[in-house]
Amino acid sequence: MKKRLICLLLALLCTLPTIGCSGEDEETKETTPAENTANAETETETETELTDGLPETDMNGFSYHLLNTSQETLTWADMRFLSEELDGETVNDGLYNRRTDIQERFNCSITSEETIHFQEVPKHLQNFVNAGDGQYQSVFLAESHLGTSLPYCSAWNSVPHLRYTEDHWNPNATSIFDLNGKQVALAGNVSLSVASRAVCMVFNKRIFAEHFSGDSLYEKVENNEWTLDTWLSYVSQVGVDLNGDGAWTVEDQYGLNMGRGFKGYLASFIGASGQHFTTPDANGVPELTMHTSEATLNLVTRLMDAMTATEGFYYNEDKTVHGFQPADFFSSGHALFTQGVPHDIYKLRDMEDDLGILPMPKLTPEQDKYYSASWGGHVLVLPKTVLPESDTGTCIGILLEAMSFAGYHDILPLYKEVALKSKTARDEESSAMLDIIYASAVFDFGTNILYDALLAPTVLQTLWDKKDSSIIVSTCTAQEKKIADYISDFMTAVEEMS
To answer: What number of CA atoms fall less than 13 Å from residue 156's CA on the CB side?
Structure first.
């Protein structure tokens, strides 16, 4: 980041507009031909340098204060985006340096409130907006709370300098929140949320070698052979009654540990296959289609049937759709595969057996790329107390663009290379797999907006309770009106946003 900062400071040979971010624009100085020539030479010399292209702006001490959730209350994702001090931990120090570099570059301060329980953030947002209190200029919100929070938010469209289609904004994620032409939320690399929740497949190397000596899962990925069929073949062959008591219990060996719970089992494969729980109708309004889309219905049916077709296929004692029990089932060596996310994989670094990391399998070899569903983190919203087209909005746009750009190019490599690869994955191949996983993170309306708000506690909980694929259609049909009403209210809130 420092190299980029030096290059950008050289560009000050050509003086650019100064924005006060306090409601007053300062006078713009015209450049001379000599200055333009010097600037052109600088650009030629540094054209290969990585730069966010933002104008060098003196923000005159502008204070950018964000509301974030408490990490202690949303433990399943990495919510970090700022660091208060250096402590020697590489990612933490990277976040600290990003913040201090940007503050120095733009003459501003970036702070956050991070003590609020994630369940309390929507109420906090509602209260300070209703009071006309401008204490927060942006809010990190759990995805499932977006629907109830939109009446207190403005769309991001009029905030300048935000380049949503660039890689650093995770366009396959952020684009999901572009509804009726309104960008209602952002999911870029301002924080580590999206990266920390990208689902992948983790495997136990010992168990794999014992059953499939000579095979290489990494070669399957590289040769475009890592598909649902391939995965099902492996996972259905490794169940072993380890204690020989004739019963399948927690003491035995299984093909799959449902590391993301039953809802994650379905969501991760649906996302990996390019399928969806919902699709837009003729008017662009999402509707539940997991039971009416032939491709999605066939996939969900196949995934559910696989659970009961083979003894030893999976193990999960959790009665809810959200998690798995026992918590150490995979780490103690009782399953070949588990669905994980980087935030969880980090915790496996003390696992006795060696592990490997893979992207989620494609549906077929013809699929254009691997996809990694990412959900359960937070997204960024703009409170109504902020006027997007004001100097404040301009400063916010510049700072978020700079933070997301640096997050993608400077922080994410640290998160991959140091916090994960060298401490967790025990081979170079897994490092390459993580590059695929992060490059393929995707969001979906059904998974990232509707899922925890309504779909999981109704349709998916019933399917998990019954474990019977024959009731998929009837279960979805029974919830169609309730889900349609929720979506209708959500879209009405979108329409009413300024």
So the answer is: 27
User: Across all residues in the chain, what is the average pLDDT?
Assistant: 89
Cα separation values, 68 from 79, 82, 134, 135, 213, Å: 8, 10, 15, 13, 48
Same domain assignment for residues 340 and 192: no
Asked if 385 and 282 sit in the same domain, the reply is: no
Type of residue at 26: E
Rounded to a whole number of angstroms, the distance between the first and last alpha carbons of the chain is 35
User: How far is CA 73 from each of CA 62, 114, 189, rounded to the nearest angstrom?
Assistant: 30, 10, 21
Cα–Cα distance between 110 and 74 in angstroms, integer?
22
Helix/strand/coil for 287: strand
pTM value?
0.86
Distance CA 121, CA 85 (A): 25
Residues 77, 127: one domain?
Answer: yes
Integer Cα distance of 262 and 303 in angstroms: 10
What letter does residue 86 receive in the DSSP assignment?
Answer: -
Q: What is the DSSP letter of 451?
A: I
Q: For the residues of 321-389, what is the DSSP string, one character each?
A: SS--SSTTTTTTT-EEEEEE-HHHHGGGTT-SS-EEEEPPPBSSTTSSS--EEB-SSEEEEEETTS-TT
**pLDDT (tens digit per residue) in 377-404:** 999 999 999 999 899 999 999 999 999 9
Strand 254-257 relative to strand 138-142, pairing = unpaired
Query: Of 32 and 377, which is predicted with more confidence?
Result: 377
The residues with which 64 forms a beta bridge, in sequence order, are 110
CATH number at residue 451: 3.40.190.10
Please, what is the angle between helix 228-235 and helix 294-309, to 10°? 10
pLDDT digits (tens, 9 = 90+) for 88-123: 999 999 999 999 999 999 999 999 999 899 999 999
Q: Using the predicted structure, report yes or no on whether residue 12 has a pLDDT greater than 50.
A: no
Distance CA 448, CA 379 (A): 10
For residues 184 and 224, membership in a common domain is answered with no
Same domain, residue pair 321 and 406: no
Band (40; pLDDT cuts 50, 70, 90): very low
Residues 383 and 417 in one domain: yes
316 found inside a domain: yes
* H/E stretch holding 433: helix 428-439
The pLDDT score that the predictor gives to residue 38 is 43
